[in-house]
């Protein structure tokens, strides 16, 4: 039986954040979250918008994610992703009609892959 995304990502620490043509969150336990779609980072002070296709760098609130822990993860029925961190920030990837706007990858390959209209487990 496949574990829900919230259980797979629960309490994992962000070890490294990389950005460029997409966002890469390298987590403890050899788990990586890849985001190739536009996303928002929400904090008490406001919202930052990131557009990976324009060459996102690790800036602003993204720099605070290194060392923080995931406190929640959910997928909307339409395939959007929301990650919550102990820093109080939330990373939100809205539903996207492109192929694989986000993925969660483990040491043996994809665990969760977004598809238009929902998500698939690997």
List the helices and strands and how they pair.
Layout: H1 5-9, E1 14-19, E2 23-27, E3 31-35, E4 39-43, E5 46-50, H2 62-65, E6 70-75, E7 81-85, E8 90-93, E9 102-106, E10 109-115, E11 118-121
Q: Any overview of this molecule?
A:
This protein is mainly β. The chain has one domain: N-terminal domain of MutM-like DNA repair proteins. 7% of the residues lie in helices and 47% in strands. The protein contains two helices and eleven strands. The strands form two sheets. The chain has a six-stranded antiparallel sheet. It has a five-stranded antiparallel sheet with strand order 5-4-8-7-6. A hairpin with a 3-residue loop joins strand 2 and strand 3. The termini are close together. The model has no long low-confidence stretch (mean pLDDT 88).
Q: Which short descriptors sum up this protein?
A:
122 residues; mainly beta; N-terminal domain of MutM-like DNA repair proteins; 6-stranded antiparallel β-sheet; 5-stranded antiparallel β-sheet; 2 helices; 11 strands; 7% helix
Report a brief summary of the structure.
The chain has 122 residues and is mainly β. 7% of the residues lie in helices and 47% in strands.
